[in-house]
Fold this sequence. Notes:
3 helices; OxRdtase_Mopterin-bd_dom; OxRdtase_Mopterin-bd_sf; mainly beta; Sulfite oxidase-like oxidoreductase; about 10% helix; six-stranded mixed sheet
Amino acid sequence: MPITRGFSGRARRGRPGRVPPGQYDTGADWPTLTAEVTPHLVPDEWTMTVDGLADNPHTWTWRDVHALPGSTYFGDIHCVTTWSKLDVTFGGVSVDTLLDIARPRPEAAFVMAHSTTGYTTNLPLEDLRGDKAWIVWEYDGRPLPVEHGGPVRLLVPHLYFWKSAKWITRLELMDRDRPGFWEQNGYHDRGDPWLEQRYQGDP
């Protein structure tokens, strides 16, 4: 599958210090981009699993995960296709909470995020630790729209948004990196927007 190098024909604008290089502020818009068919997920049938290199691999139901301490993200998100959306609010649970229960083994250094659609994306474990990532089901105080990953998605806002896997169901702890869907198709393994890590070969 060819990689997408962004939209064209739109004026670029941004706020100094808020919008990474090569990005524009999408304002009130939230573009919908996906490589998969949008699934129909029933919350009561959804589960979230953290396994792989874990001392206490664990699976949560929809009710279970909602019983965990809640956490909110307020800030910005950035897509590799050059848009940024500022001052967004997501609600859910911190990935730290799930990892603390699953207890990653010392050799666990990477994570593969799996979606119900079969989509995958790889991340260093440190990018999910330290209040940097969430499992979210609310956007702006309302249920997360299905086209944006609802009822539940991964949120890793400091990386390009393809790392925030929609329709998340599993975090697999690994001792070595393994490319996910877009990484196998030319995208960068990490995806830091401030370093413009868009494609393989970028710094």
